[in-house]
Every structure is written in C-alpha cells, then in structure tokens.
Write a structure and sequence with these properties.
By secondary structure, the protein is of the alpha/beta class. The strands form 2 sheets. Strands 3-2-1-7-8-10-9 form a 7-stranded mixed β-sheet, sandwiched between helices. A 3-stranded mixed β-sheet has the order 4-6-5. Strand 7, helix 6 and strand 8 form a beta-alpha-beta unit. Helix 7 packs antiparallel against helix 8. The longest helix is centred in the C-terminal third of the chain and has 18 residues.
C-alpha cells in the first residue's frame, strides 16, 4: 500500500457530514460505517459519487479479528457502540438499544485494498487506536490523522489513555499535534490550503470538519500537547456532565450561577486529536 495524495479515509462515517465535506473539497473518499442503517442511507445519498468512482463505502466494523461483531444500535444513532461499557452508561441516560451482528474486519486489510490515505479521520467510539496501530505494518503513513480523543470520555483512566494516544502517534512518526473541539466554529482559508475552496457553512454537529493545514490553532510538540490534553481532561472532570460542578446545587447568587454556567460551557462537545507527520510543513498543497 502506498500513500495517495487524492485519498481520504473516513472511519466512522456516521450520517456522512465529513464524507460530504471531503468530496466537496475534491478528494476521493473511502468511508467505513458499522451501522447498517446509516451505511444504506449513505449509499442512497451518495449514489452519484459511488457511480463516478469517487466514493467507496465499507459497511463493516473495525475489529482486532476478522469475522463478525455485535453492534448495539441506539435509538439515537450517535450512541450506537461496540463497547458494552459505553452502552451501559448510555442506558443509564435513557437510551434504548437493540443488538445486530455486523461484519468485522481488520483495518490493515482495508489499507491493503485501498492504499494509505493523505488524511485519515477516525471516530469509532473508543476503538480509534485499532486504526492507528494498523499503520505500523506499512512503510507509508497518512500525512495527517485525527482521532476522537479520550479527554471527554467517561473512562476512569482517561489521563493514561491520553498519553497512550499521543505516544502511539509519536512512535509512528507524528511530531506535531492539536486538540480541536468538534463544536468549535471553523473558518476555512481562501485560497484553500487543502483541495478545492469550500463555501461555508461547515458540516457542523457530528463532524470533524477541517483537516490538515486548514485546521484552526497552532501545532504543538508532544509535551505541550500532552499537557494540553491533561488540562482538557481536568476541565471535563470538573465541568463535564457528571463532573464536580454538576453535583453542586444551582444556587441563587447571580455571580455564582453565571460563573458556574461559564465554566460548564467550556466542557461541551467531543474533542479530536489531530496529528501531523514529521517533516511536513504547515502548507502542504
């Protein structure tokens, strides 16, 4: 498998916002989605792009072994998961599930078939590192990678997982990193730094948005990124949905209520960890 500068792989396509965005930017896309209902909807939505050979959809789950996997489908699609722990937490919030058997493949088998992408986006609810580790079997690497970070997860050992994510990427040759809130408003440059010019609005919720040289913020070395990740995790522990502030009474003092609201607002959407390959300048195209 060799790196293709015209290819993006979207692992965890979900409702297809990112796939649509990458196609609009002029890239060819390989999309992977375990939820069979969402995969069928995407095949109908993007029928033209599939016929043109610009998009290929794999309706499979990424797993450690090829075979089948049990996917818990939620009545709210964003909660669907292969993780029993995630399902149990969601059920505690009133989410309802039913199980389905789906095909499961190793990510390296897909790379063998479609080649290494220029940009690899992964968002598969806690299993993202399966895709990252699969890259160790190949000589080429994606120039850019993003995964959904553990900084906002409900796991008790998330601080260690944050180090594991960064260190796994570092061992593969990635030297610059940045954390981006998926709900952050993004403004794309004109002229574009990646692909074609794209007229906003951006995809929005349920999307990772900008990638590569067009991502907002400054690229940081490993240590600074690690400290930033830990700081974001600490904020989640304090201000998250089940954090320390959530256990405090709302209070009546306007200043207290305002400060509590502002702090909790800082801990909002999922956070993606973006990584840039060593030796790559900020402007790549």
């Amino acid at each position: 498998a060799r790196m293709r500068t015209d290819l993006i792989i979207d692992v965890g396509m979900h409702v297809g916002h990112d796939t649509w965005f990458y196609l609009a930017k002029g890239f060819n896309v390989v999309a992977i989605e375990a939820n069979p209902e969402l995969a069928r909807e995407a095949e109908a939505r993007f029928a033209g792009e599939i016929d043109d050979g610009r998009l290929r959809i794999f309706p499979v789950a990424i797993a450690e072994q090829t075979g089948t996997a049990r996917l818990a489908l939620a009545d709210r699609p964003s909660y669907s998961s292969l993780s029993p722990a995630d399902v149990k937490r969601a059920e505690g919030r009133g989410v309802h599930f039913h199980d389905v058997e789906v095909p499961a493949v190793q990510f390296e088998d897909i790379l063998d078939e479609v080649d290494i992408p220029y940009y690899l986006k992964v968002d598969i609810e806690g299993f993202d590192l399966l895709c990252v580790r699969a890259l160790s079997r190949f000589d080429d690497r994606p120039v850019y990678i993003s995964i959904e970070s553990s900084v906002k997860s409900a796991e008790r050992h998330a601080f260690g997982k944050i180090f594991e994510e960064l260190n796994t990427l570092r061992k593969l040759g990635y030297r610059r990193f940045k954390y981006i809130d998926q709900l952050q408003i993004q403004t794309l440059p004109d002229p574009p730094l990646e692909g074609r010019h794209f007229v906003q609005p951006m995809p929005g919720v349920d999307a990772s948005g900008a990638f590569g040289a067009e991502t907002p913020g400054r690229w940081e070395p490993f240590v600074r990124a690690l400290l930033r990740g830990w700081a974001l995790r600490a904020l989640r522990v304090v201000a998250g949905r089940d954090g320390w502030l959530a256990s405090l009474p709302p209070g009546r003092l306007p200043l207290y209520r305002s400060l509590r609201f502002r702090i909790r607002k800082l801990s909002t959407g999922p956070v993606d960890l973006h990584a840039r390959l060593s030796g790559v300048s900020q402007r790549t195209q």
